[in-house]
């Protein structure tokens, strides 16, 4: 592995942290939105916050994570032969699905079609943590899974 691989890996990790930071916060905004549904002056601000968080932080972080993850695989195609990577990629694809779910939920909240209670939003806010734990443990303990 050369220096370019390490640069791709560093950017991949930075992008992943950015993606997760947004995911950790978006459902917290939905909690506040559901708790303030009758206050349009509050929900208007929360709608802007959620839109900017999703479009400026979450989606670009996800895209960059994928781009630089693929770049790492291109630099080291032997990674595709390792079972741990297949498990990790499955979790990452599921996380991308969760990200899409966040986007759909954001659009519903923006249209004042609130379908989740504050409690449900608090529970859904924990989902990225489960993905993070799984992905990190797989990457760190990959030698036991290959």
Task: Summarize the structure in words.
There is one protein chain. By secondary structure, this protein is mostly helical. It has one domain. 81% of the residues lie in helices and 0% in strands. The protein is built from 5 helices and no strands. It has helices spanning 3-35, 40-75, 83-110, 118-124, 127-140. Helix 1 packs parallel to helix 3. The longest helix is centred in the middle third of the chain and has 36 residues, at 40-75. The chain is elongated. The protein starts with a helix and ends in a 6-residue tail after the last helix. The mean pLDDT is 96.
What is this structure's SSE topology?
Elements: H1 3-35, H2 40-75, H3 83-110, H4 118-124, H5 127-140
Helix pairs in contact: 1-2, 1-3, 1-4, 2-3, 3-5
CA-based shape: elongated
Count of helical segments? 5
Number-wise, the strands total: 0
Q: Terminal Cα separation, in Å?
A: 18 Å
**Most strands sheet:** none
Helix share of residues? over 70%
Average pLDDT score: 96
Percentage of residues in DSSP E strands: under 5%
Which sequence of SSEs, written as H and E, runs from N to C? HHHHH
- The number of domains is 1
Q: Residue ranges: pLDDT <50 for 5 or more in a row? A: none
The structural class is mainly alpha
Rg, nearest Å: 17 Å
Short description:
With 146 residues, the protein is mainly α.
Q: What tags apply to this protein structure?
A:
mainly alpha, 5 helices, 146 residues
């Amino acid at each position: 592995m050369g220096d370019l691989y390490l640069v791709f890996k560093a950017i991949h990790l930075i992008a992943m942290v950015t993606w997760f930071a947004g995911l950790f916060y978006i459902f917290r905004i939905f909690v506040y939105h559901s708790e303030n549904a009758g206050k349009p002056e509050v929900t208007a601000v929360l709608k802007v916050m959620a839109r900017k968080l999703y479009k400026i932080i979450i989606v670009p972080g996800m895209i960059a994570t994928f781009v630089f993850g693929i770049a790492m695989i291109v630099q080291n195609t032997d990674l595709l032969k390792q079972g741990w990577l297949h498990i990790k990629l499955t979790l990452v694809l599921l996380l991308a699905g969760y990200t899409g779910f966040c986007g759909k939920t954001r659009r519903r909240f923006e249209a004042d079609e609130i379908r989740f209670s504050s409690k449900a939003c608090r529970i859904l806010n924990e989902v990225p943590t489960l993905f993070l734990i799984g992905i990190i443990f797989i990457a760190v303990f990959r030698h036991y899974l290959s």
